[in-house]
């Protein structure tokens, strides 16, 4: 993912790279023009020299413009390119002093073509054409090179350092953008999960309230009407009592259907064991990891809030295994005991340090289980897999 600023910076970098690559053509063209106008040699000699200059132009085009990918991937190829460049420049300088105008381009190309410390060796090698110039005084030439070489190395090192800093800054910006996107995704996931949890809790609360008030009241009305019906003999009053009793029973059935409708989706029309088994089956198909589900003890009907808590615990534990554990096998056990229900989820994955990890899902699960006076135990260590055990008390379904 790239930002607009990053795209603009990359565009500017490409333009500068193109300018550096085209600079040698400007200097070569200028040197050739000066040579053609001022050199006293005959036209035959001039054509040979200009042909060598054209060969240098073609050499640079083949490596720099025709195959720009070589500049980043083929270090030895670029060493050969630079050696050929120095050879061409040395021959041209030997033929005419005018081509000394091209030699500064060799300093620039040393830092463009050669990586790391070989670039500084290239700067030193770029002095060869100066030394090949005919009629040059050795002492003055060496003095000039002693000044020009360190200066060129210093400038090239500074430019390379600035380019490296720009690249590091761009990479840091890219990482920040990626982190921001990941944080946004996690925030959206947390918000969605919190919303789902809130909706589920509110539905459970409404179901509990309806069960404890309206359903219980209608149950009492039905009981009272049945008692009155036994005391009243056949006749108009008994018919009215029977009609009221039937209406109360119908209302009670509708209320119970409404309570069932408020229970979470996987538990509609299913026992807790079936709902957890379905969650395991769905997870196994999603992650393609072997997973077993076992029920021990005698299943018994429990309060819907207990069912919801155990089911959500299974879903959260399996989701964590799928996201983090890299497990090869998962075993899920639902145990019905005398006064508690225990859910165990074990995997053979990478494990983790339980003292340093605590995500939102696990925290929310602990809070939910604690609201039922239950407990959540997590046993894990790096490389030893993970075992999550959820224990909740049995809260029986009221009539």
Automatic annotation (TrEMBL):
Domain annotation Histidine kinase: ranges: 310-396
Recorded GO MF terms: kinase activity
InterPro entries, per database record: HATPase_C_sf, HATPase_dom, His_kinase_dom, Sensor_HK_TwoCompSys, Sig_transdc_His_kin-like_C, Sig_transdc_His_kin_sub3_dim/P, Sig_transdc_His_kinase_ChrS
Membrane-spanning ranges: 18-37, 44-62, 74-94, 101-121, 141-161
The protein's Enzyme Commission number: 2.7.13.3
PANTHER family according to UniProt: NITRATE/NITRITE SENSOR PROTEIN NARX-RELATED, SENSORY TRANSDUCTION HISTIDINE KINASE
Name of the protein in its database record: Oxygen sensor histidine kinase NreB
């Amino acid at each position: 993912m790239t930002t607009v600023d990053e795209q603009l910076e990359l565009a500017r970098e490409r333009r500068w790279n193109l300018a550096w690559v085209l600079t040698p053509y400007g200097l070569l063209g200028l040197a050739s023009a000066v040579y053609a106008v001022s050199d006293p040699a005959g036209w035959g000699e001039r054509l040979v020299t200009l042909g060598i200059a054209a060969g240098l132009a073609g050499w640079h085009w083949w490596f720099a413009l025709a195959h720009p990918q070589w500049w980043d991937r083929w270090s030895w190829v670029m060493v050969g390119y630079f050696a050929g460049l120095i050879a061409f420049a040395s021959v041209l300088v030997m033929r005419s002093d005018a081509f000394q105008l091209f030699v500064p381009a060799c300093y620039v190309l040393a830092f463009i073509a050669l990586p790391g410390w070989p670039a500084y060796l290239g700067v030193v090698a770029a002095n060869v054409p100066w030394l090949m110039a005919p009629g040059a005084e050795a002492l003055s030439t060496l003095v000039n090179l002693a000044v020009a070489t360190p200066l060129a190395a210093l400038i090239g090192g500074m430019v390379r350092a600035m380019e490296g800093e720009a690249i590091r800054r761009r990479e840091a910006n890219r990482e920040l953008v990626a982190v921001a996107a990941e944080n946004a995704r996690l925030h959206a996931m947390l918000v969605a999960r919190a919303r789902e949890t809130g909706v589920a809790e509110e539905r459970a609360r409404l179901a509990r309230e309806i069960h404890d008030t309206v359903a219980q009241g209608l149950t009492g009305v039905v009981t009272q009407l049945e008692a009155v019906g036994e005391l009243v003999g056949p006749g108009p009053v008994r018919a009215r009592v029977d009609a009221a009793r039937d209406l109360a029973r119908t209302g009670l059935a509708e209320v119970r259907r409404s309570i069932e409708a408020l229970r979470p989706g996987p538990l509609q029309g299913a026992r807790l064991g079936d709902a957890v088994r379905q969650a395991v089956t769905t997870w196994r198909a999603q992650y393609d990891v072997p997973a077993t589900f076992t029920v021990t003890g005698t299943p018994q009907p429990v309060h819907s809030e207990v069912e919801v808590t155990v089911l959500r615990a299974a879903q959260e534990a399996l989701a964590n295994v799928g996201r983090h554990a890299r497990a090869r096998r998962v075993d899920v056990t639902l145990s019905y005991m005398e006064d508690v229900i225990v859910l165990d989820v074990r995997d053979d994955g990478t494990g983790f340090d339980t003292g340093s990890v605590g995500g939102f899902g696990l925290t929310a699960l602990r809070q939910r289980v604690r609201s039922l006076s239950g407990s959540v135990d997590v046993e894990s260590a790096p490389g030893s897999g993970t075992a999550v055990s959820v224990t909740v008390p049995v809260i029986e379904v009221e009539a």
